[in-house]
Structures are given as C-alpha cells and as structure tokens.
Amino acid sequence: MIRQISPSAIYMGLLAAFVGYSASFAIVLAGLTAMGANDSQVATGLFFATLGMGLCSIWLPLATRIPAAIACGCSLPRRRSHPARRVC
Q1: H-only helix segments in 1-88
Q2: Are 54 and 71 in contact (CB under 8 A)?
Q3: What interhelical angle do 7-34 and 39-64 show, nearest 10?
Q4: Which of 20, 66, 83, 85 could form a disulfide with 71 if both were Cys (CB 3.0 to 4.6 A apart)?
Q5: 49, 55, 57: which is closest to 74 by C-alpha?
Q6: In sequence order, what are the residues at sequence separation of 6 or more whose Cβ sits closer than 8 angstroms to the Cβ of residue 17?
Q7: Rounded (5°) CA angle 23-28-34
Q8: Could you tell me if 46 and 28 are in contact, meaning their C-beta atoms sit under 8 angstroms apart?
C-alpha cells in the first residue's frame, strides 16, 4: 500500500486537509465569538474541534477503507422564522 502513494497524492491530501481545516477554523471561530466566548474559551473550542477532526480523519478511512476528509461546522444560514430548528 505504501508503494501506491505518489507525491501528487500526498500533495493533494495535504491541500484537502488544509482547505478543510481552514474553512472549519473560520466557521468555529465565528460561532464561538458570536456566542460571546472569551479568548480562552475560543482557544479551547478550537483545540477540541481540531482534535475531533484529526481523530475522525484517522478513524474514518481506517474503518471504511476509502479516502475521506472531515470538516467541522456548517455555513448554511438559519431561517429567522424557525430559530430553534437546526438547518444542518
């Protein structure tokens, strides 16, 4: 299996991880800040979001035997008429 890994596959994997992490980072940061979290709470939330994404990014491909990427957060807006209903 190691022989099948090419430099372009490694590059694309790192690029996908970076894009997924940066998008999730911005969404989680905005959400925590909007909830009124202070700096230490935001840092803790981002740490555990990163830890969760990392563990899931290792576990999911091992469990399913297919390449998978994990992203955290949701960027879909909520409807104002239903504030308690979750969109994602």
Answers
A1: 7-34, 39-64
A2: no
A3: 140
A4: 20
A5: 49
A6: 57, 69
A7: 130
A8: yes
At 22-67, the pLDDT tens digits run 888 888 889 899 999 999 999 999 999 888 888 888 888 889 888 7
With a CB cutoff of 8 Å and minimum separation 6, the contacts of 61 are 67, 68
Instruction: Find out whether 63 and 11 touch, Cβ atoms under 8 Å.
Output: no
pTM score of the predicted model: 0.63
Note every long-range contact of 84-87, with CB atoms under 8 Å and residues 24 or more positions apart, other chains counting.
none
Half-sphere exposure of 84 (CA within 13 A, CB side): 0
